[in-house]
Fold this protein.
Amino acid sequence: MSHRYQLEPVVAEWPQLSGNIYCIGRNYADHAKELNNEIPAEPVVFLKAPSALRALAEGPLAFPDETFHHELELVLLVGQHLKAQSEVGPDSVAAVTLGLDLTRRAVQDQLKKKSLPWTIAKSFAGSAVLAPFVSARGLDLTRIDLQLEVNGEVKQVGHTRDMMFPCSTILHYLVTLQNLYPGDLVFTGTPAGVGPVRRGDQLRVFSDALRLNANGRL
């Protein structure tokens, strides 16, 4: 079993996390097209380190003088131990939130050209930003809206109905690879509209379906 981690600063609504952070790339066709990426035949999976996590509030951020790309995502919190090759049931997700996958896009593009891993473009202090979690009980994960504002201007608007691989498919795919544990996080991919964000920018994430409205500062 993985070690337990707490986000800093600790917020009462947040559960304990396992430290495992799975991220799905290119899960919205329009986003794949805007970056000139191929449409994948199966989920594209990469990882972030637990040290990448931070709250939707000003906090640790590596490369604070750089400009990042914001990628707004629905984030799943696994609620039970799912053994490899096991079935994924409707209660497998305990809670959800909105998160930002901050990306060093220029660095990522250079790594891609060299056929190297993306790690230093995707996993660094402050690159996995989380709003407070809400219970997944009764939620239809195929009907979740998500929106990001930067400095009061709407930058990303998406809906999980547009995912190429819905949440259930993502979880089924992950358990073909390994066990999943309570407290594992799954970033499910970003819709189109990614763009620049810098230290000090005001952020707002919103979802009517989740009754979530959270503000913070990068």
Notes: The mean pLDDT is 89. The two ends are 32 Å apart (CA to CA).
